[in-house]
Amino acid sequence: MSEAPTTARAQILNGIRRSLRRGEITGEQREAVEERLARPPLGPTVARAQLAQPEKVALFCQWAEANNATVARVAASDVAAEVVSYLARNNLPARAAMAPSPQLADYDWDGQKMLSLRRGRGEAADQVSITGAFAGIAETGTLVMASGPEHPVTLNLLPDTHIVVVRESDIVSGYEDVWTRLRQRYGKDRMPRTINTLTGPSRTGDIEQAMELGAHGPRRMHIVVVPT
Amino acid sequence: MESTARDFNSNVDHALADPNLQDSLSKLKVGFSERRRQAAERLPEFEALRDRARDIKNHALANLDFYLEEFERKVLALGGHVHWAPTAADARRIIGELCQSMGARTVAKSKSMVAEEIALNEHLEAIGIAPIETDLGEYIIQLRHEPPSHIIAPAVHLTKDQVADTFLEHHAKLGFTRRLTERNDLVAEARHVLRQKFLDADVGLTGANFLVAETGSSMLITNEGNADLSNTLPRMHIVLASIEKVIPTLEDAAVLLRVLARSATGQESSAYTTLNTGPKRPGDLDGPEHYHVVILDNGRSAVLGTEMQEILRCIRCGACMNHCPVYGAIGGHAYGWVYPGPLGAVLTPQLIGVEEAGNLPNASTFCGRCESVCPVRIPLPKLMRHWREREFERHLTPVAVRQGLALWSFVARRPRLYRGLTALANRVLALFGRADGRYRALPLAGGWTRYRDLPAPPAGGTFHAQWKKKGPT
Ligand code: SF4
User: Which among A18, A191, A193 is the nearest to B287, CB-wise?
Assistant: First the structure.
């Protein structure tokens, strides 16, 4: 695209080396940075999220609510009923776009005759989406969504109302645990195309620094926490 | 972005006389600053995280070439492209060509200070492509043809009523003919107008808060979700990032994320933190087909290895400006270029030249609040002092003057600014006291009335001349 990419590249990299008064990193220094990449050192531990699993789940729910999400804790058999009830409670249509994910397939959607589901990506006209989270972060009540054929990114963004199902066993302490799980699932060199971490619904503070919900993404986020 | 940093002194006078601006600025203290304090207090590990954040950025800068190459390798392996832009002109040309290769008519842009830095919008318009700012604040100022006044809240200088007038003026032709009075209605109207623009855009352009070398991912943090729509809906996603954005690993990102949101808005976490790695994968139902990262130097590599290197740790949280008494009195536009506040006072002379922006480092009381809140512990006052010393050396100014005269003349000539700074008067006085006994008698000790706080400036006329000109107000 640019006329002489290698030249521009060399210009920047050599400029950096000149300023740092050294050549390309070699020898022991190189081994040290390669080692640091291969085995990333952890930062200071955030104590508040170092909890036994039940307390971790409780902390997740507490922070999610503080972030303006709503939370329901229901048995796996009641997930579909909770979704229908949530939509009714909020005067929303019983119609949703759902991620074509095996993680969601087990719930009793067929038992909810009122609910009409379309499985696929999010479209502009969708009012409600239902997705499954890759993980939940207890430290801040954050959901982690990993993209893929079964998890379209548009479902996290386009609808006004986003309903997310997260399993208790997928709730972890902090980001570091999420990275470990991602490497285990996808391999260290192959992140999913998109990781969306969602901390409550979309918001903006751009008018007079006052937070308003529903800037570009969902205005409402409902999290359904399910025991495993 | 065209600089007006050269006119800093007159910019300041304008700012001090603008009632809407002063009204907006008065909210900063109770807004971002107070929320940051509470967030920091809620997290016992906050100070330790700041130390670690500083160390991570220092490590990344010391090995910057290695991590950039590693980042590039990972992006290429997953089907993305990396472009190297030594100058702003290179970056503009590369992005322009990429947009043209898609036959793009519109580009959905997510707020990027680096894009402001290289004046990307002007270039795109010149080649017939319409850039659409999608961050609410950026959208508002784009409609008003104004530059951003804050790095994380670009429209922080405006009141709700000004936004309402702007929307009415520009949205009436789209059928929104009622003047809105509530913030949530203004947000909803902008959402509606911009949603269609997202769906129509051929290219999405975002900045990056971090580039993660380990995974080849660009990391973006927003509250609105506009960056995510920009990198998901259009067929091409272009990331524009400067060289110092690269960090080694995801673990390092976790540390930086924890200090960034808290320092910026006082949130525990921003609503959206997104990692993008390459283009859409086989079987994916959405995402861009093309993924390009443009890595910009624009003078930064030359800062490495100098006494100014520490400014490259900056993670653009905005805390230094939120806590700066000078920014709080004059707002962001007076600084005349992309980066205002203490960050701008240090970075702008570096990026656009001391001839243009040499006045900015004087815009400080050296109160030290910026350094005390900077999440990566950049010694901003020290770096401003470096600039001033360089500037004085250039003008062969006597050593005695170096200590405080520039500051004195800057502050003292502006009674309203001076009043805003009275809480700091004692420190300022001490500074003058150190400089030379003569300045001890300067009227900086508070208790001054509106009539009497026009101290005599060293240039521009005596006290009596000023008095005559302006009169008692
Ligand atoms: S200099 Fe520090 S406080 Fe200012 S924007 Fe950069 S990181 Fe934030």
Answer: A193
Q: How far is the CA of B274 from the centre of ligand 1 (A)?
A: 21
- Three-class secondary structure of residue B441 per DSSP: helix
Domain co-membership, A29 together with A56: no
Query: How many Å lie between the centroid of ligand 1 and the Cα of residue B378?
Result: 7
With a cut of 0.85, is the ipTM above it?
yes
CATH of the domain at A217: 3.40.50.10420
Tell me the Ramachandran region of residue A190: left when phi exceeds 0, alpha when psi lies from -120 to 50, beta otherwise: beta
Mean predicted lDDT score pLDDT of chain A = 94
What is the phi/psi pair of residue B300, to 5°? -70, -40
Are residues A97 and A13 located together in one domain of the fold?
no
Q: Give the three-class secondary structure for B182.
A: coil
Amino acid at B23: D
pTM, two decimal places: 0.88
B46-296 placed in CATH 3.90.79.10: no
Give nearest CA residue, ligand 1 atom 7. Answer: B314
Backbone angles phi, psi at B308, to 5 degrees: -95, 0
Q: Is the CB of B261 under 6 A from ligand 1?
A: no
B319 lines ligand 1 (CB under 6 A): yes
Q: Which of the residues in chain B have pLDDT under 50?
A: 396, 398-404, 422-473
A193: Cα within 13 Å, side-chain hemisphere:
28
Cα B302 off chain centre by:
21
